[in-house]
Design goal:
Elements lengths: L9 H13 L4 H10 L7 H11 L6 E2 L1 H5 L7 H17 L5 E5 L8 E4 L5
Helix pairs in contact: 1-2
GO biological process, one term: regulation of DNA-templated transcription
Protein name: DUF1413 domain-containing protein
InterPro entries: DUF1413, Ribbon_hlx_hlx
Length: 119
């Protein structure tokens, strides 16, 4: 996958960061959306929505590919970035009832556990 670099001074970087935050997107996702009108399904919010729709039960364990099923088309590098965003999101929102368990059998993919369900 090609990498495109963009160099900004501090002022423009802060502007870009604020614009992305206003839309609750990463800078990378904001740029993709703005230039190509592409929205990604690989966001923590979308993952949580899918988890709710799948009706995982308390104590069920899952990895993010389990949540997306056949829609899991993200490549390895971006998948790691998305995984880190999801990890940070669920840690910042313990009320979701999703807890990080461990890094799985091979230490490459985070395993999560449902600890609470919405009523």
């Amino acid at each position: 996958m090609p990498i495109v670099k963009l160099t900004l001074n501090d002022e423009y970087y802060e502007k870009l960061k604020k614009m992305a935050q206003a839309e609750q997107k990463s800078i990378q996702d904001y740029i993709r959306h703005t230039i190509f009108q592409i929205d990604t399904i690989f966001t923590p919010e979308e993952a949580v929505k899918r988890i709710r729709e799948e009706n995982f039960e308390i104590e069920d364990e899952f990895e993010l590919p389990d949540v997306y099923g056949e829609d899991w088309t993200i490549e390895r590098g971006p998948a790691g970035v998305f995984g880190k965003k999801f990890f940070n999101y669920v840690n910042a929102h313990p009320d979701l009832g999703i807890k990080f368990k461990d890094m799985g059998k091979y230490g490459r993919r985070a395993v999560y556990r449902i600890v609470k369900k919405d009523d």
